Amino acid sequence: MSTTAVPEVAVTAVDEGFWTRVRKTGAVLLALGVLATVLFGALATDQQARFTLSETEGGAALEINGTIGAILFGIIAAAAGAALLAGVPKRWFTLVLGVGLVAFVLSFLCWQVSAAPEGRNFMPLVNVIRGTFILALPLIFGALAGVLCERSGVVNVAIEGQLLMGAFSGALFGSISGSVWVGLVAAAIGGALISLLLAVFAIRYLVDQVVMGIVLNLLAVGVTGFLYERLMQTDATKYNSAPRFSNWEIPLLKDIPLIGPALFRGNIFLYLGLLLVLVIHIALFRTRWGLRTRSVGEHPTAADTLGVKVLRLRYRNVLMAGLVAGVGGASYTLALYSFTKNMIGGKGFIALAALIFGRWSPTGALLAALFFGFADQLATYLGAIGSSIPSQFLAMLPYLATILAVAGLVGKVRAPAADGKPYIKG
What would be one Pfam family of this protein (predicted)? Predict the structure, then answer.
């Protein structure tokens, strides 16, 4: 009896070579650090760069000579880049990268604050922190809507439309009823209507989810724009003058230096957004619903064999996502502004980037949204102090931060395995 020898297959590890992701990031950060040291240090002045711990110029402040600060923080950023380039352990990557990026931003701010005209050469940290959270709110709600959908296996490109419909519905029904609570409920329902269309066409009729999301965004822009011209422009007092939620101050916590005035004297949307991050995180990773949601997003066939109603769960989660995004849209029209055509202005797509940057996690999405919110607030602050940087570039800053974060800092991430794949029950 003859036997056939089976050749052994040698399994070798993939050689990444010298230029790993960590070293590439280190090289970029090193270049940024050198740029900050040389350029920002040369452009900064000898005026004190003051970072006040209040909302005004007065009071306690952190001060540093502009030139010294720009050079010092530039050197720290370059050192962090050199450490990454030398090949620090992967467990230290996030910490070293974070230190380097913060140092680069501080070097830039030392230049900008010290070079500002007399009387404006200070940065009120309370206002910056408060503005960061306010500008991040729609991103937080939108990213949470993305988490609920994509952890269930449904791509949610329609966040922009959900936010816009929520903003419009909140303004319209809040104005007609004269009640902020009616406006809030209407905003949630408006976002859910867009989600319902996404669920029906993506889950029931198996339409391409990305294409469907883009179509729904265009639908929301068209419907709200048409009704805005026919109703709100003709009679703004009746249809576009919704009452606003007032700020709620939390006793004791509001008196904490720096953090208290920024976070604990906010409106309902700030508290609700932070609460939803906590609730969804716990529900997603600590409850039966969360286990089933993650199972459906990773392997719906296996979940189905264990008795999970895959399609029902997807419908429910997509509708919940619409409710959340609709409330996020209301944070514009029931707290800050009157409704205008296409007022979301691409924030839904930035929320989608925050979802990816945050690796499909509620807490990660929160941190990513705050990063983008800070970029937006920084652009506003630089415009207020008369920065020499062109205003057109400042307007681009939040979107440049989005590109940098997703293309440069995220690296290799894996979406839920069944994300975007329709499930056909056998």
Answer: BPD_transp_2
